[in-house]
Amino acid sequence: MKLLVAEGFCGMTPRDGSIVGGLYFVMVGVMQLVFEAGNLCKALAGPANGTNGTEVPFTGIQCYYTLIALESFCVVLAVLMLASTWTQRSVGLLGFGVWLTLYDLALVAITSLLHIEMRKVGLKLESLAWYGVACRIATDPFWLVFVITHGLQLHEKTHHEESRKKRTVDHKPGVVKFKGFDSGI
Description:
The protein is mostly helical. The protein has helices spanning 14-45, 58-87, 90-120, 127-168. It contains four helices and no strands.
């Protein structure tokens, strides 16, 4: 299989891009956690937060809890993806690629639901929230290309090593050798 970014892209090899991308995912995840926690605190404060006596609906608060839970999980998986990069485990890299794609879809869906719930009671979702979602959706694929390419390279490498080991095993038809009882004579 020919990988398009196998030799590198933007001056980075897939391994280097995976490391920088992992650091990016951790940094953005922590920033989003802080942002969503602040929004949750404002929502829980209720009418005292200057919303003209309007409370955030229960579904809106649950959306904030869901976003915080998903983002926490994403930060943990980003750290595990970095560990997979350093230990050269393709499953961790490719699994993170699948998770991040699903996470981005969930992020858009939950933020849209939150926007709808806030409008029902006459509140507006901050434009900074939509800006964060748009930036995340726009930049995640750039780093995900490095992560998936590196994961596929590691998968190919381990697959070729395993098949090479299977081909080099000496099998003599009809002769059974018990290495545990072989005295070497």
